[in-house]
């Protein structure tokens, strides 16, 4: 079983705010499969840094608006 990543994302919301872009449309623009987009959206897979920038560029958004990484507890 694959361990989910701590990185969360707003890809689903961004797709809908950009003309209800489908997962297949995003996959085509990135040159990956729809299954890859699904896995990234669901937090089951973390994209490479290069792909993360490509995704942000598709939405014309800063990287930290697309992806979030939780702050470490300093307790």
Structural class: mainly alpha
Helices and strands, in order, run as EHHHHHE
Helix content: 40-55%
On the 0 to 100 scale, the average pLDDT is: 91
Task: Give the spatial strand order of the biggest sheet.
Answer: 1-2
Beta-strand content estimate: 5-15%
Number of strands: 2
| Gap from first CA to last CA | 30 Å
| Radius of gyration from the alpha-carbon trace, in angstroms | 13 Å
Which spans of ≥5 residues are poorly predicted at pLDDT below 50? none
Our count of helices gives: 5
How is the biggest beta sheet arranged? 2 strands, antiparallel
Overall morphology? globular
List the helices and strands and how they pair.
Blueprint: E1 8-9, H1 11-17, H2 23-30, H3 34-41, H4 49-58, H5 63-66, E2 67-68
Antiparallel strand pairs: 1-2
Helix pairs in contact: 2-3
Structural description of this entry:
By secondary structure, the protein is mainly alpha-helical. Helices cover 49% and strands 5% of the residues. The chain is built from five helices and two strands. Strands 1-2 form a two-stranded antiparallel ribbon. Helix 2 packs across helix 3. The protein is globular and about 35 Å long. The N and C termini lie far apart (30 Å). The mean pLDDT is 91.
Summary, kept brief:
With 75 residues, the protein is mostly helical. It has helices at 11-17, 23-30, 34-41, 49-58, 63-66; strands at 8-9, 67-68.
